[in-house]
Specification:
about 15% strand, Rossmann fold, single chain, about 40% helix, 12 strands, 12 helices, about 325 residues, six-stranded mixed beta sheet
Length: about 325
């Protein structure tokens, strides 16, 4: 019995005879029996699978997930991390060469790198492909033309990461695990925000590449993290995204702290005569946080936020 089918019981007056009362009672008992049986079946199905589902993805497309996915291909590193965080590594049958966390993901069959091989994906016979709406745009269109079910995400804030974890948990039949992970992220973000609210505001430069200088402008997770720890992004007026930025302007704004994603960039800045008069270099406050902890929109972003908050205490 589906949710939209309802048994309607007419309580009209049938008369006062004993036979009529018996007939009415029998009809009521039959109807109630059908309701209870149908409801039990409906609850058993939805509790076990929760499918079929129709869920809007980041493109605004209503995607139908007919059954619980058991063969999943992930063509973005962040969706791979989310799947593993949900305990679904055993259902992942294909990833990209950039899917490097956790270690087990490196052992999975590869379907490409920045460019996805549609043929390799189809060969794995997935019942679901998870993708990044922007990065994987061309691959998504091709895979859908081939008849595959693709669900795309494109979170732009930490709250949206938590939202997308919940959504992926829903469509993969892991809603409770997803809720636990998402709620933990949200609580930790609020906790760190409150802890840092009364700290002196530091000027922070996050270096994506030291030479030529690339940094994180507005509209990035990095920029959001800097604001959450009550600091100011040196590149606050840069173009949105990860962009080139004037080295002279960055130096003139005298960052108190510089964060890099790799040790080689930190060493370059510490040894460079051009940067030696900045507070960050002079006070040896050039630190390394793994780039994926601040730029990859998955469960580990909150770890990057924690590390940034701790480093600004030094």
């Amino acid at each position: 019995m589906s949710r939209n089918n309802r048994v309607r019981i007419d309580f009209a007056l049938f008369g006062n005879s004993q036979l009529t009362r018996i007939a009415i009672r029998a009809k009521l008992q039959c109807a109630l029996s059908l309701i209870i049986s149908g409801l039990a079946f409906f609850l058993a199905v939805t509790t076990a699978t929760g499918h079929p589902l129709q869920v809007k993805d980041a493109r605004g497309k209503l995607v139908t997930i007919r059954d619980k996915p058991v063969r999943i291909v992930s063509i973005a590193p962040n969706t791979t991390e989310i799947l593993y965080a949900l305990g679904l590594g055993n259902r992942v049958v294909g990833v990209t060469r950039y899917c490097d966390y956790p270690t087990d993901a490196k052992k999975k069959p590869k379907v490409g790198d920045m460019t996805t091989s549609a043929e390799a994906v189809v060969a794995l016979k997935p019942d679901l492909v998870l993708a990044h709406a922007l990065v994987n745009d061309a691959a998504i269109r091709r895979l859908e033309r081939l008849g595959l079910t693709v669900f795309a995400i494109n979170p732009k804030t930490m709250n949206q990461v938590a939202r997308d974890i919940r959504t992926i948990g829903l469509i993969t039949a892991r809603p409770r695990t997803a809720e636990r992970i998402a709620s933990k992220i949200e609580r930790k973000v609020e906790e760190i925000k409150k802890q840092c609210a009364k700290r002196p505001m530091r000027r922070v430069l996050v270096v994506i590449q030291s030479s030529p200088l690339w940094t994180a402008g507005p509209g990035t997770f990095v920029d959001e993290m800097i604001r959450l720890v009550h600091a100011k992004n040196i590149a606050f007026d840069a173009r949105p995204g990860f962009v080139t930025f004037s080295k002279e302007i960055a130096i003139s704004r005298n960052p108190d702290v510089i964060i890099t994603g790799v040790r080689s960039d930190a060493d370059h800045l510490l040894k460079s005569p051009e940067w030696h008069n900045t507070n960050a270099v002079r006070n040896n406050k050039v630190f390394v946080i793994k780039s994926e902890l601040m730029t990859r929109p998955g469960p580990r972003l909150v770890k990057g936020l924690e590390e940034l908050a701790k480093l600004l205490l030094h």
